[in-house]
Amino acid sequence: MQYVIDTLYHALLVPRFRYPDGLSQVRARATLAFSLLMMVSSAFGLLGLLLQSTRSELSNIVFVGSTAALLGQFAVLGLVHAGAIQAAMAVFFVSALGSAVGLYLEGASTLYLLVFALPLLYASLCWFLRGALLTTLFEIVLVVAVDRLQANGIFVVANRAASERLSLQTLLMVVAILAIGSASGIFSYELRRAMQHVNRLLIRLRATAEVATQATTNVTGLNDLLKRTVNYIRDRFALYHVHLFLADKEHRFVSLVASTSEVGDVLLQRGYRLAISSQNAIGQTMMSGEPVTAAVGENSDLPQPVNELSRNVRSELALPLIVGDEIIGVIDVQSVRPNAFAQEDIDSLLIIATHVSIAIHNAQLFEEQRSALNENRRLFLDAELNLREIQRLNQRLTGEAWDEYLKAHHAEAVGYTLSNNQLRSDTTWTPLLQQAVSKRRAAISKEGERQVVAVPVELRGRAIGAIEVEMSENVRQSDALDMLQAVAQRLALSIDNARLFEQAQELAQQELEVNAISTKMQGVTKIDEIVLTAIDELGRALGAEAASIRLAVAEREHTGHGTGNGTRGPNGHDANTNQGMQA
Fold first, then answer.
1. For 97-101, 242-246, 318-322, 463-467, which range has the lowest pLDDT when averaged over its residues?
2. Which end of the chain is less enclosed by CB atoms within 10 A, N or C?
């Protein structure tokens, strides 16, 4: 039973076609409702006529008219469900008005007032004030015409009223139609205003949602966000100009960062900015954090540069951009219509300003994070380059240090070989050892049951030697490699520490010898004896075969060309006159 009721409800009162606008949807539902009412009325009328025992000629005409009206309502239902709302409205209105005229022609009576009210109410709902006025005028003309025709005896009906009552009934009908028409007209006018207001709100909300979505998604950067925001606000709200100002860090000025049309381009090229303390709408919004509207005319409140380039502007609205407790900027919208911004427009634009504020703040944070990320990446690359340079420097210094160590010990290499449980000195390089050092990775050779593994000895990224071990097949190769590499690492650290310790001892010994020589020289008071002590101790400490000391004040370069007794000293005198000692 419920299924049948739902099916009938959707078939008779819910249009199947999805009309694109709200007005057409309302008209479709009203047409279906009035059509159902008329369908029921026609069905009851036909049922009453069928139950009559005798029929007059007029009853037959009414029967045919009611049948036609009933069939017409099915046509109306089909047109509404098919999407032809204009045709459905026309068919229903003609059918309803024709039924009212046909019933009224049966005889002037106040009982037919409701019949005239049906097309009048329908016209006021579907065509609003215009439909109510035209239908009221048509029905009054019809009532008066029928009254005159009946009064003059030209038109005779079955239920004719007495002549003295006819004019009174007609007057009552006209007054009633005027009352219903006036009430319907007022109702339709207010309904039209309400629908326009709701439709405008829906458009504003849709535009608000669209602008907010576009402002917060698919943004590649702050400049792109600002430009797209002002363009969307201008297009969706049909505005003349939209400017967007952002405050500086010191909150002293607001600078124009995005705008629409050529006016905005000129101002952007000028690098236009405003003092926050200025008395125009933008300055007042920055100071108060509230939206400010201003009428623009000859005495414009717009800043002078903006006023010069926006001569067609008649109204202005400044909206604050607020993030938390901070006002970060202003959206300044302008219109060529006076008093263009109603309260619902301000509310919608405030919602957009809230979304734009958050989007701008997020975009600024994103750009700051991206800048910080780029700076960190640059610092990381610099650190990586420095690290590589340090590694190369360590490798070079490590190689030079070991070269000097080996030269100091008059050896090209240090090596030992364990064979037959005997350890002997051996500095020869096998091919496997050379391969491990040159490639700086483990080298493996296997011949029959014999396998040889060599691993490099690395220190600070520089190979300073290698270890080679020959072993049987019973030993797992992975275990041997792990052990050899671990030993190689510890060996590199140990021998480098030993080298550093030896060098430290040598430096300490040198320091002791220097101190000893200094001590001996301090115990002598004569220059010749001091020089003799110094050269004697140096020769002994260094194992020198010959050593010389010369003391003189150098005034010019040595110009002597001879040797022996003819050699000239630094000051041009004979060298024999200089203080000198040779050992």
1. 97-101
2. N
